[in-house]
Structures are given as C-alpha cells and as structure tokens.
C-alpha cells in the first residue's frame, strides 16, 4: 500500500514539474518585463500633451508639469532618457501607476520622447 502511495506522489510531482516547465516565463520574457523595449515613433507633441491630459497625469504632476503630489517634470529630460521614462510610464514606480494596460506602447513612447525633450 505504501509503495502505491509513494508511486502516486512521485507521479504527481513529475506531472507538476512538466506543467511548470511549460507555463513559467522564460528568461527573455522576464527580461522584457523588467525593462520594456521602447518602440520607434516620431514625436508628436500635441498628441503627447493630449494623452497626458486625458490620462489625468496633471492631477499629480500639475497642469504645467510643475509637480505637486508627483514630481516636477518641466525639465525631466535633463535627468532621464526617453527609454528610462518609457520604463517608468509602462511599469509605474512608487505612487505612480502602470500605464501598460491603459495606453498603447506607441502612445507611451510618444509621451516619453516628449518628456525627454523637456530640458
């Protein structure tokens, strides 16, 4: 009886291992989640400004990006690159929420480039 129980437990463990091998993310997927790749876009300042206003960014960063609850972004381009800003907007940071499910990658890239140009 004990042999059957042990055999069953080993079989279940092997099945679980196989399932995990095919369902866990690979190294590439984990790396992409850590640092998302910014798509190539041509900056459109008017569209970026519209996205910032529509998404409520001004409620934390101010209507002139002067800061408030969130940091001042008026000269953020002298401190951070477009890629760094893209990662923060995509993933969120601190009290800032992630926008990866709210905006398309191209919209986030456009906003990141627009902010990076503010020096």
Automatic annotation (TrEMBL):
Keywords: Electron transport, Heme, Iron, Membrane, Metal-binding, Transmembrane, Transmembrane helix, Transport. The chain crosses the membrane at residues 6-25. It comes from the Bacteria. Residues 43-119 form the Cytochrome c domain. This is Cytochrome c. It comes from Paenibacillus cookii.
């Amino acid at each position: 009886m004990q042999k059957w129980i042990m055999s069953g437990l080993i079989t279940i463990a092997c099945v679980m291992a196989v399932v995990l091998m095919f369902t866990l993310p690979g190294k590439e997927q984990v790396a992409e989640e850590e640092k998302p790749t910014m798509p190539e876009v041509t900056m459109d300042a008017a569209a970026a400004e519209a996205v910032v206003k529509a998404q409520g960014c001004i409620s934390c960063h101010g209507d002139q990006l002067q800061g408030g609850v969130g940091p001042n972004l008026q000269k953020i381009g002298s401190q951070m690159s477009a890629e760094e800003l893209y990662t923060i907007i995509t993933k969120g940071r601190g009290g800032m929420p992630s926008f990866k499910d709210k905006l398309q990658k191209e919209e986030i890239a456009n906003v990141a480039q627009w902010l990076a140009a503010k020096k």
